[in-house]
Amino acid sequence: MLEAQALDIQYDGKTVVNNFSLSVQQGEMISIIGPNGSGKSTVLKAMSRLIPCHMGKVCLEGQDVRAMDTKTISQMMCILCQANQAPSDMTVQELVSYGRMPHKKWYQRLTPEDYEIIDWAIEKTGLSELRHRKLPALSGGEAQRAWIAMALTQRPKVLLLDEPTTFLDIAHQLEVLELTRTINQELGVTVIMVLHDLNHASEYSDKICVLRKGKQELFGTPREVLTTDTIRQIYHVEAEVAYSPVSGKPRIHVCSRAEASKLWMAN
Predict the structure, then answer these.
(1) What residues pair up with 8 in beta bridges, in sequence order?
(2) Which membrane topology describes this protein (predicted)?
(3) Residues of the chain whose pLDDT is less than 50?
(4) 9: helix, coil or strand?
(5) Is the CB of residue 221 less than 8 Å from the CB of residue 208?
(6) pLDDT 10s digits, 99-121
């Protein structure tokens, strides 16, 4: 579905991502994790063609994205970055309607079919009562849902999310992640997202990619990746790992210094 092949990415002549490869199958939900500055957002932007690669290539459904026109890519793939901006006088419905632009010529107006898709996306994201509200009047969670609704109207096959829970409280973080999982499971949209919270990555991912210093360290299921040894090596902290009785996925408890000392003494 989407494949990165041996990517080297540079900023100002300095390599920040080295020999990165990732193959994502249709319908998968993938999280990219790693310490700050490890290249997570850079990889996501490169895969969406927002930034160029110095070496390697990205293929979408077998086609090199460099050979595809922007409109075709926009019809198939959508990226939401950490800080999304829109005019302050724009309403939720107006923002969501922009998701139809990749499917229109510059002179074409929205059709009844377009409005049906817009209404569907607004309803799917629970924004029906807020559709005429101006964007600055939304809470963080509501605003994030509005941007996701815009992505849904684009009807993408692949959705890239760069830290979608940043600046949100716990309840709204879970709200956004549950919505993302619904989009993945019910609509078959392939999702790749950058996350910081390891428990969120564990619970909401089929597979996890671990980056450190611009290199891929691990790629596998949450059980394969999220181990005490991996967390120690990647983040330089001690952690206890248990498993959810419901999902069977790892639950990580990062230890305080005192707790870590007890663990070291016990071992």
Answers:
(1) 55
(2) Peripheral membrane protein
(3) none
(4) strand
(5) yes
(6) 999 998 888 899 999 999 999 99
Nearest to 217 by CA among 206, 232, 237: 232
Three-state DSSP state, 260: helix
For the record, the structure tokens of 204 come out as 């909401």
- 2-226 folds as Rossmann fold (3.40.50)
- Tell me the residue type at 150: M
- The whole-angstrom distance between residue 31's C-alpha and the CA centroid of its chain comes to 7
Extents of the domains making up the chain:
2-226, 227-267
* Nearest alpha carbon to residue 28 among 161, 181, 191, 176: 191
Instruction: Encode 249-267: b = buried (16+ Cβ within 10 Å), e = exposed.
Output: bbbbeebeeeebeeeeeee
Record the tokens describing residue 121, joined without a space: 């996306």
- Contact at 8 Å (CB) between 96 and 122? yes
pLDDT digits (tens, 9 = 90+) for 137-157: 999 899 999 999 999 999 999
